[in-house]
Amino acid sequence: MDLVVNGDRHTLEMDPRTTLLDALREHLGLTGAKKGCDHGQCGACTVLLEGRRVNSCLILAVTLDGASVTTVEGLAHPVQEKFLEHDGFQCGYCTPGQICSSVGMLDEALSDDDPPELSDAEIRERMSGNLCRCGAYPNIVRAIREVAAR
Known about the structure:
This is 2Fe-2S iron-sulfur cluster binding domain-containing protein. InterPro entries: 2Fe-2S-bd, 2Fe-2S-bd_dom_sf, 2Fe-2S_ferredoxin-like_sf, 2Fe-2S_ferredoxin-type, 2Fe2S_fd_BS, Aldehyde_Oxdr_Iron-Sulfur, Beta-grasp_dom_sf. The chain has 5 helices and 5 strands. By secondary structure, the chain is α+β, with helices and mostly antiparallel strands. The chain starts with a strand and ends with a helix. It has a 5-stranded mixed beta sheet with strand order 2-1-5-3-4, with helices on one face. The model has no long low-confidence stretch (mean pLDDT 95).
């Protein structure tokens, strides 16, 4: 099966039960996406699949032949700078998923014909699938809001 990850094409042979998360981490050595709950509930494994955010622990890699995946390692986005600037992380475990989800969420929201105003409440709602055990939410929201305001 072929998978384009961060712009590079990879031909992978693996067990058909392998999740996208495990393919990224174990077969390609891309450890940015984290295995948190392994049930799609925490968002630590969030990556962009064809530009849309997904929980990579829930998707079988074999179903993605020819698809394009972007991980945190392949991003170069202003939200990353703002996470640093606003201290949008503490332990950092959820940060790659938070960043990928932020990028996907901003693309979703700002590509609408009539983009919504991304208030703090709207950002929190749109990011509700990504959990942070440390409680860095106010700083994460601040970082996202600043990028959205551009």
